[in-house]
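Budget justification aside, the reviewers requested a transparent look at the raw inputs and outputs of the sequence design task funded under Objective 1. We therefore reproduce one unedited record. The lines immediately below are the structure tokens for a 307-residue chain.
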């Protein structure tokens, strides 16, 4: 689903509060120079801890990262700003957002913070996917896109601190190697006897990962689109989705664990009754996980379910 920023009178209050916390006026809230993070580190603000973790893996000890949405129990779709986030954005050297309509609140907050010199990296723009109707904005489940974003982060950090360029490049190489390993896992699933299996989803959150693993999504588009956009599910689409399980048409259900509702629960119950594995796929990092271990677990869960 696409998170929405609740723009109310709170926004103006947060802007003032953030500047007050900074102890400066709107004019002086601008960064005097780069490296205003903790201990002279490059200050990075990411819309979610997914992109925050990617930035941290590339930047290492040279960066200080703030992730706006970082709690796996937090619903990204109903995000409300706070003064601390506004303050962090006012001091950011680099901002990493997802784009594609997923986290428009970042641009709204950044504008309110008066920081027009931060380097803004938009993952959907970097991905090269055609934007508009039909775009699946959950591009962090697409490993080629994550590689592109990581490379852009490394280039941006190197431009801000050339003395650390070799470190950023080494970190990028390590990260890329691990991502290639994950792509190998996808390819192995695709080449296995389970390759080509039919699957169901509640929302298109993990669609890139499933497709790259050679799995075919059989969920009626009207069902998953309605859940993603927080609309009522058409009765016929709901009926057809439930029939996927009662008819044992699909091998697994991948569901968004961070959203809930009667239709989602109905589908989960149908999968359980039919003995079909249901795999939770979240939009943010689970506690204690980094991006690579999280995706490793996701692929392991898919492989186990297909067995």
């Amino acid at each position: 689903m696409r998170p929405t920023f609740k723009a109310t009178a709170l926004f103006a209050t947060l802007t003032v509060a953030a500047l007050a916390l900074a102890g400066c006026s709107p004019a002086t809230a601008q960064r005097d120079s780069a490296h205003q993070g903790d201990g002279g580190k490059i200050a990075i603000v990411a819309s979610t801890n997914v992109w925050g973790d990617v930035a941290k893996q590339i930047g290492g000890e040279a960066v200080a990262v703030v992730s706006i949405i970082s709690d796996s129990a937090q619903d990204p779709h109903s995000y409300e700003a706070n003064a601390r986030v506004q303050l962090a954005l006012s001091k950011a050297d680099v901002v990493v957002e997802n784009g594609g309509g997923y986290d428009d609140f970042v641009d709204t907050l950044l504008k309110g913070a008066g920081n027009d010199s931060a380097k803004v990296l938009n993952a959907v723009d970097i991905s090269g996917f055609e934007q508009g109707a039909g775009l699946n904005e959950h591009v962090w489940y697409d490993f080629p896109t994550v590689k592109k974003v990581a490379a852009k982060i490394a280039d941006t950090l190197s431009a801000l601190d050339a003395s650390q360029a070799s470190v950023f490049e080494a970190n990028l190489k390590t990260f890329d190697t691990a991502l290639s390993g994950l792509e190998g896992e996808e390819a192995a699933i695709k080449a296995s006897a389970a390759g080509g299996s039919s699957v169901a989803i509640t929302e298109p959150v993990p669609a890139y990962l499933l497709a790259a693993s050679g799995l075919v999504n059989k969920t009626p588009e009207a069902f998953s689109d309605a859940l993603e956009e927080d609309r009522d599910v058409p009765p016929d689409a709901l009926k057809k989705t439930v029939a996927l399980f009662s008819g044992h048409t699909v091998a697994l259900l991948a569901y968004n664990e961070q959203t809930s509702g009667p239709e989602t629960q109905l589908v989960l119950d149908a999968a359980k009754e039919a003995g079909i594995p249901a795999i939770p796929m979240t939009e943010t990092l689970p506690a204690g996980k980094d991006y690579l271990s999280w995706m490793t677990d996701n692929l392991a869960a898919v492989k186990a379910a297909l067995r």
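Confidence is low (pLDDT under 50) at residues 4-35. The CA atoms of residues 46 and 96 lie 5 Å apart. Computational costs for records of this kind are itemized in the attached budget.
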